[in-house]
Amino acid sequence: MSDSCQRILQNALSDEPLSKTDALGVLSSDGVDLLILVAAAYQIRHKYFSKEVTVHILNNVQNGLCSEDCQYCAQSTSSSARIEQYPMKSDAEIMAEAKAAWEQGAHRYCMVFSGAGPSDERIDHLSQIIREIKKNWPLEVCVSPGVITSDQAKKLKAAGLDRLNHNLNTSERHYKKICTTHSYSDRLATLRAAKSNDLAICSGVIIGMGETADDVFQMALIHRDIQTDSIPVNFLIPIPGIALKTLNGLTPEYCLRVLCLFRLMNPRAEIRMAAGREIHLRALEPLGLYVANSLFLQGYLNARGSSNHHTLQMIKDLGFSIKSDVKIDEILLRSDTHEEADGLKSRDELRPFLKET
Ligand code: SF4
Prior knowledge:
The chain is of the alpha/beta class. It has helices spanning 3-13, 20-27, 34-49, 91-103, 120-136, 150-158, 172-178, 184-196, 213-225, 252-265, 277-281, 285-288, 308-317, 328-334, 347-350; strands at residues 52-62, 108-113, 140-144, 163-165, 200-202, 205-207, 230-235, 270-273, 294-297, 321-322. It contains 15 helices and 10 strands. Strands 1, 2, 3, 4, 5, 6, 7, 8, 9 and 10 form a 10-stranded parallel beta sheet that branches. Helix 4 packs parallel to helix 5 (120-136).
């Protein structure tokens, strides 16, 4: 192992931040050799998470109809993507999907809302739903409600919410280029409100939006500073119709290096290889699990991903286990083996229990 890789590994093992020079070396193909880097990141992953994978299933509780102009988002006012739009699902639909998520091995059930932020009435309604889910299944519950206040965070915590998601998405410097209707500091304030009310926080980034390597370093650094518990590392999915066109020259190697940087800079955080893992990591996707300890099953908010069977088989083939009371072999036996499709999710995929409820 080279001196620089040895230094990077020692820093991460002792939970010290990487210098900017070392961080940029991690991101560069002229820097640390890729497999040596992955092996170093794996030591950190193994130290804190052993060979366990946390599986997340998203519920797109309210889709589209958003007044914000986030350039990467298919639900944005700036998007002409042909997504299925609907207001908040019924309580019965949300509960049926929570039950299904539990049966499919999900450790955490994430309810995601479009929009800038919730009213107090919406927070009260959401609190009831959280109580009901927690009463019925041993699922951890995460909510992505948009910008919230400290009082709203307090109510959600009292209802039993485990974790609040609010993505910072990119660096403070780059933020104005991807959204003008709300600011980076609005987003940061929401995360601080959640933290100060004892909620674990999940906050993701999106790679491929025209940011520089220095921006990526700044993203890893801010999450270290605010002690983000869970960091979904997304790679831009170029859904036709979204305003943003850049992919910033993403290659599988670069995407894997980005995962390594987040792991090395945030050793104790749950690092998720999140949206776009299939199309951007491609043949390197299995190596991503030696670095990240978490992933989404069943695709993303509007975009399809690998089939459940494919993803779970990958986890099993690598010798990893899932963090669930349900055994991976049981889920594999009853999961559909059909190959995944790409493109946008249909109404039936987004609302599987609509007819029954
Ligand atoms: S990311 Fe959220 S706030 Fe931004 S456009 Fe999409 S749904 Fe609206």
